[in-house]
Amino acid sequence: MPELPEVEVVRRGLAQHAVGRTIAQVEVFSDRAVRRHPGGRSDFEAILAGRTIEGVSRRGKYLWFVLDEGDAVLAHLGMSGQFRVGAGSEGATATAAGPEFHPHLRVRFHFADDGPELDFLDQRTFGGLAFAHGGAELPHEIAHIARDPMDPEFDLGAAIRTVRAKRTEIKRALLDQTVVSGIGNIYADESLWRAKVHFRRPTRSMTVASVRAVLEAATTVMDDALAVGGTSFDALYVNVNGESGYFDRSLDAYGQAGLPCRRCGATIIREAFMNRSSFRCPRCQRRPRGLAD
């Protein structure tokens, strides 16, 4: 699933290509793509016609189009959602009647100018769009989502206090979007590797300095990922121009099982965690005393 750097790359691309443009028509090709919109497909199409996109904002892994009159279109990419500018029928199979739509096209935005359309593609259909009345500043649907480390108003001290007050393990706290948003499995593992912290360390046993080190590592690793377009393991994550990110080449822990740790040379191991995987260096990130396998 795209995490904060990947969503921020998409947000920047949308800001470049969509801000200032007026929507002439919206076509919804899949009810599932607007399942979170109470009015359904027809209402979503009708309510956006004639509206102007004034900005593109983000909170954690969510982004939204800031519309005129104080409204918004809230979007979540899910596992495979993509916004593509001018994708047209790319990837479709040509027929005698002409090219078909992209096989994963779910929503298309047509604009009043002569510029390219904006498509929302989603292979696995876990993502989606919804109109958010009065949501230009912050859609109420995501008001519970915490600020992320890249947010100018992110309060590091408050985040440290919240993490230490939790009766949980550090990686679970990092993945809790009400504690700190934007961090997923990839960047949690990378942050913990950089801070030399075991993913199951109890948060209440951590010092202020150790929690600070993890959150600062998260900021640094996501900044590094953002600089190279995020992490792309396959074609399910690309930016609005269809380009992949390259941070997968710089990963130190995530997906590196069986390879030597770049810091100490020990073999990176993979362990089960919340129906997914966690990767760590057994020497740099030692298991806390008393913690069972």
UniProtKB/TrEMBL annotation:
InterPro entries: FPG_cat, FPG_Glyclase, FPG_N, H2TH_FPG, Ribosomal_uS13-like_H2TH, Znf_DNA_glyclase/AP_lyase, Znf_FPG/IleRS. Residues 2-127 form the Formamidopyrimidine-DNA glycosylase catalytic domain. Binds 1 zinc ion per subunit. Its EC number is 3.2.2.23, 4.2.99.18. Gene3D superfamilies: 1.10.8.50, MutM-like, N-terminal. Pfam families: Fapy_DNA_glyco, H2TH, zf-FPG_IleRS. The active site is at P2, E3, K61, R276. Belongs to the FPG family. Its cofactor is Zn(2+). This is Formamidopyrimidine-DNA glycosylase. DNA binds at H104, R124, K166. Residues 252-286 form the FPG-type domain. Involved in base excision repair of DNA damaged by oxidation or by mutagenic agents. Acts as DNA glycosylase that recognizes and removes damaged bases. Has a preference for oxidized purines, such as 7,8-dihydro-8-oxoguanine (8-oxoG). Has AP (apurinic/apyrimidinic) lyase activity and introduces nicks in the DNA strand. Cleaves the DNA backbone by beta-delta elimination to generate a single-strand break at the site of the removed base with both 3'- and 5'-phosphates. Monomer. One of its GO terms (biological process) is response to oxidative stress. One of its GO terms (molecular function) is class I DNA-(apurinic or apyrimidinic site) endonuclease activity. Keywords: DNA damage, DNA repair, DNA-binding, Glycosidase, Hydrolase, Lyase, Metal-binding, Multifunctional enzyme, Zinc, Zinc-finger. It catalyses: 2'-deoxyribonucleotide-(2'-deoxyribose 5'-phosphate)-2'-deoxyribonucleotide-DNA = a 3'-end 2'-deoxyribonucleotide-(2,3-dehydro-2,3-deoxyribose 5'-phosphate)-DNA + a 5'-end 5'-phospho-2'-deoxyribonucleoside-DNA + H(+); Hydrolysis of DNA containing ring-opened 7-methylguanine residues, releasing 2,6-diamino-4-hydroxy-5-(N-methyl)formamidopyrimidine. SUPFAM superfamilies: Glucocorticoid receptor-like (DNA-binding domain), N-terminal domain of MutM-like DNA repair proteins, S13-like H2TH domain. NCBIfam families: fpg, PRK01103.1.
